[in-house]
Design brief:
The protein has two domains: 189 residues, 2-enoyl-CoA Hydratase, Chain A, domain 1; 40 residues, no CATH class. With 242 residues, it is α/β, with parallel strands linked by helices. The chain has a six-stranded mixed sheet with strand order 1-2-3-4-6-9, with helices on both faces. A three-stranded mixed sheet has the order 5-7-8. The chain is built from eleven helices and nine strands. InterPro entries: ClpP/crotonase-like_dom_sf, Enoyl-CoA_hyd/isom_CS, Enoyl-CoA_hydra/iso. This is Enoyl-CoA hydratase.
């Protein structure tokens, strides 16, 4: 199942809980879609942290389920890809806190998020070629460049958190006991910034908009005026997403 909680008023925590590997079968995907739909329409949400319970992030698709899909196999893969696109396009920034296994579709899930942190026991694999499929062949090269990505994509070999940090797949490595706390700290930092500006910045980075298109509304926004007033008054800004 998927555990959805709200540690603060502006941060949503999503925890995959499907032992032993947190595989993304159809039922868990449906729960994730429902949670994302609710997040997308909740203007109070400013950041999302996605992780897995049980010392595992996600080992990808449920291969036991895939084995009996028959004629529905292609539709199931396309459904998975649409879910990844939905996560990537979410209005607010998403942070993947990766502990333990992060294989195949699990790596794609992490790549669909905006930021990734790992525990020092995390293990990654771009394992599409290991099961006769293509996975992460678009997002991974975009993130770390074609040459480094090919070393992972064409071999399907496992690699550790240190290699993920070196290659730029994750931005920091923490102990398992501090990983979620550090992810929440990062989410809190993001949620304290002007939300309209954060969302606009994400759209520009993702190629969904141009700076010139975003600036007029941002300059006229109440949040921008509040930022100036807070600076002049030497106080913390109270952003209202307006």
């Amino acid at each position: 199942m998927l555990h959805v909680s709200r540690p603060t008023g502006s941060i949503i925590l999503l925890e995959l809980d499907a032992p032993p590997a947190n595989a993304l079968g159809l039922a868990l995907r449906a729960q994730l879609v429902r949670a994302l739909d609710e997040i997308a329409t909740d203007d109070d949400v400013r950041a999302v942290v996605l992780t897995g319970r049980g010392g595992v992030f996600c080992a990808g698709d449920d291969l036991r389920e895939a084995a009996v899909r028959g004629d529905g196999a292609l539709a199931a893969v396309e459904d998975f890809n649409r879910l990844m696109d939905w996560i990537e396009a979410l209005r607010v920034p998403t942070i993947a806190a990766v502990d333990g296994w992060c294989f195949g579709g699990g790596l794609e899930l992490a790549l669909a998020c905006d930021l990734r942190l790992a525990s020092d026991r995390a293990t990654f694999a771009a394992s599409g070629v290991n099961i006769g499929l293509v996975a992460s062949a678009t997002r991974l090269p975009q993130l770390i460049g074609a040459a480094r990505a090919k070393a992972h994509l064409l071999t399907g070999a496992q690699f550790d958190a240190a290699r993920a940090l070196f290659d730029g797949i994750v931005t920091a490595v923490h102990t398992p006991g501090t990983l979620l706390r550090e992810a929440m700290r990062l989410a809190e930092a993001i949620s304290s910034r002007a939300p309209l500006a954060v969302e606009a910045t994400k759209r520009v980075i993702d190629g969904k908009a141009y700076v010139e298109e975003e600036l007029p509304a941002l300059i006229a926004s109440g949040d921008h005026q509040e930022a100036i007033a807070a600076f002049m008054g030497k106080r913390t800004a109270d952003f209202r997403r307006k």
